[in-house]
Prior knowledge:
It is built from three helices and twelve strands, in the order βαβααββββββββββ.
Amino acid sequence: MAQITPMFAVPFGFAQMPASEALNEALRALFLAREQEGTRWANPNPYTIRNSALFESHFDLFDWPEEPVQRLAQFCLGELMQLVGQLSGYDLVALRKLEVQTDAWFHITRRGGHFGMHNHPMASWSGVYCVSPGRHDADATDSGRLSFVNPNSLAGMYLDPANSRLRQPFAFSNHGFDLAAGQLILFPSWVQHYVLPFQGEGERITVAFNCMFR
């Protein structure tokens, strides 16, 4: 029998911030206050398709001095460094030699808000942290879903019974995640992704970031 080996796998990382309730509430209050201050904190040059129900901040979030932001940055970057070490075989000595630069920002999404398909150029790793998923409508099963596009775009050029029902990790389908408060997803920056429209009450609040190493 032939040995089956996944040859073109894409690594993702998943982590959960322990006891995140107080931190998330502090972040929520800070972000809502900054949103209310208007254009001072808003990204002035958005390039990805979105609508007016979504607010996007400047990309300097991890440089803010506020304690909740710095706690979040420490958690996100710490988890990413561990992932990089695991995937690349770096020990602590090698990891400590790495310098990292970041872009980081927050999104506040209200009913109907969405974010078009994109990736994150000029970075190696990216992440999304969920501050609050909002309160989804009961019948909106894919509300605000963070969806990643399968990079094997040519794999479905011909389908028949021998390849149309492949199981993971070999299937051709995309992957979507319904984020929970305190959840962090790490992924290579080149992977295309988008956010489906949020159908619910309150706010869906997330923090995204890019990392560049040397």
